[in-house]
Design brief:
Layout lengths: L1 H8 L1 E6 L8 E5 L11 E6 L2 E10 L14 E2 L8 H13 L4 H8 L12 H8 L22 H16 L3 E7 L5 H14 L3 E5 L7 H11 L3 E4 L5 H12 L5 E4 L11 E6 L17 H12 L2 E6 L4 H8 L4 E5 L10 E6 L10 H5 L7 H12 L3 E5 L8 E3 L17 E3 L5 E2 L4 H4 L5 E3 L6 E3 L13 E3 L3 H11 L5 E4 L7 H12 L5 E4 L12 E6 L13 H13 L10 E6 L5 H7 L3 H15 L6 E9 L2 H19 L5 E14 L2 E10 L1 H18 L5 E6 L6
Parallel strand pairs: 6-11, 6-12, 7-9, 7-10, 8-9, 10-11, 13-24, 14-22, 14-23, 21-22, 23-24
Antiparallel strand pairs: 1-2, 1-4, 3-4, 3-5, 15-20, 16-18, 17-21, 18-19, 25-27, 25-28, 26-27
Helix pairs in contact: 2-3, 5-6, 16-17, 17-18
This protein binds adenosine-5'-diphosphate and zinc ion (ZN).
The site of zinc ion (ZN) has 7 residues, from loops.
Length: 709
Amino acid sequence: MKDKNQKAETTYIKALLPLHMPGPLTYIWPFDKEPPKRGTRLLLPLKNRQIIGISWGVDDCPKEGIRYKEVAEVLDKTPLLTEKLTKFIGWASSYYFYPLGQAMGEALPSELISARAKGAKRITRAKAGPGRSRLELFSWEEARITRFTPEQDRAISVISKEISSRTFSPILLFGVTGSGKTAVYIEACKSALKEGRGCLVMVPEIAMTAQLASRFTRAFGESIAILHSGLTPAQRRDQWWRLRMGRCKVALGTRSAIFCPINDLGLIVVDEEHDPSYKQEERFRYNARDLAVARAKMENATVILGSGTPSVNSFFNSVNGRYQLIQLFKRPSGAKLPRIEIIDMRNEAGKSVSLKEKAAEIEWMAPRLRKSIRETLARREQVLLFLNRRGLATYVFCPACGYVFKCSSCDVILAWHRRNRTVLRKAGQEALNGGPGMLACHYCGKALPALPVCPKCNNPTVKTSGFGTEKVAEDLVQAFPGITVARIDRDTLTSRRKLEGVLRAFRNGKIDCIVGTQMVTKGHDFPNLTLVGVISADMSLNVPEFNAPERTFQILAQVAGRAGRAQKPGRVLIQTFMPDHYSIRSAAAHDFAGFYQREIRLREQLGYPPFYRLINLKFTGKKKANVELAAEKTLEFLKALSGNSPKCSILGPVPCPKVRIKSRYRYQILLKGNISEIRRLASMVDNKAQSLLPGGVRLGIDVDPINFM
Ligand code: ADP
Ligand code: ZN
């Protein structure tokens, strides 16, 4: 009895910490006032440091016999997180099997919450509330739109009606590349603002979509908040507060913006909804596109998923009536879609007629592509070449003993890189004398000086094979003397500013040709770009993933969409060793419907999404035997649970295609089947993880996975 009375005198409160732990911790509430609402930040002692956590309500029955610590300080006057946002993050955390506190830690800007030990300075900054850091806005000159096309008009009126209905309305806006979707998004935002509600606009990558960002900042000026990974922590925090305080009602951002605090959200736009960068591939493995639909549902909002190449899932949802389909078939500029030709690389060898031509042959360039590049440059028009692989050579080996250079902590081959120069101008010596460069791992960034002696047999002359964007750029300046080539990939584009500089120079005609990886497939309008060459369409097809054909179709259609957007007709050449593959054929024929029909039938036959759902259980650890053991134990556990249920199949365990990354071995078990059944199994494994995993092995749960490497 006495004990109980004593407890009644003390108030205990729960707090979520941004750390790997299943639930909230309990603290003593030492102050005279009422404890704060859920979502308020608290400064809390933990071991011998202080940490920022989120209050999670009063704890009515704390465990006995524990010496709880006291809350040190309340950091917010108004709770940082609204009730709605708290509920949404909670939903995401349970959907993706990711601990709530940690999910909050990832959803919030790092300056506002952080698990790391905090100096006094950091705490002051976290407490500071809305600051005054300035953001440089995007500006990209272009003609204003004077009149909408009839298609745009219709789309805008349908969408406005949905927005004013104030009910959950998911819409798929399928508009071919260059059909003027941005203008539709902007009008939709204006409708939502007229209703007094807020808007969230998401883009896959801010740098490549500077043009869209610029149109938005022109339309909404100071009332827009911008959220992307290029911001400083202080800028990010300020943008967040501006939204939280209701000073601006439109947010434009990348993936993580899905968690930003907009009061009374009436509209969410997901541009290029098919883009895989909406999926976070580590830690909190959410898909911002899917979360957009979930959040819109919670907020009774309209959500527009826009794309020129919709994902199979979203299009399926429009066919079965879950999403309303709105289509834009025409380009306002009147420009026709480009002519796409397939170059069958199997027949290209030996096409060179003269000896001189033979001598000048370049491994990656078919004579037909070479001729088109020459003609395009002669007309003073521009060229874009796409290759989804960086570097000068794909791998380096010893011709004497066969040794292949691999990364010592990842089981992947090292690529040869020489220079980080973005723009190449001169042929001859200058281009070639880039020094020996280095061998680099694309996964952990480790690098060796190139080209080393073979460590196995000491042969000093190792050889290289394969090619990446760097090689393509070097070969181009050799083959077409006098031209200026810019390379756009992760090696050269270290900042948004740099990228914008290159894009601007290209637009102004100072660069003749761009060579780039996936980054170049999205976004921009270049009026004088008339030739697009795809160096190898097969690269994205030849990966062991069920969605490889979909990705390939999307990449090809998107990159093709960059050619001939203005008055001059565009031409696209696709080099491939698989010219009959339906992804490539449909992309070449601008035939989304044809591709979809074929793909959806295959998915149904093979039991892949959207017919069945997937959850991937990923085991990683430094000791291979332990990782294998964890996977095997989990398999046994799963088998006992599911008892050969026809609702689900358990595939694996198998080593991941990339067996070891950053010194950790990787195994996976794929659950495929009815969603509630596979969720049930995954959650049992999650709860049991402690006992299923030997020391040092970690389990990551990937719900609706798209990457299986
Ligand atoms: P996408 O559908 O690929 O996102 P954009 O929104 O970038 O296409 O529009 C493509 C081009 O068409 C842009 O240059 C844009 O300014 C222009 N545009 C859009 N709508 C109109 C219109 N009604 N009249 C004239 N030009 C337009
Ligand atoms: Zn590595």
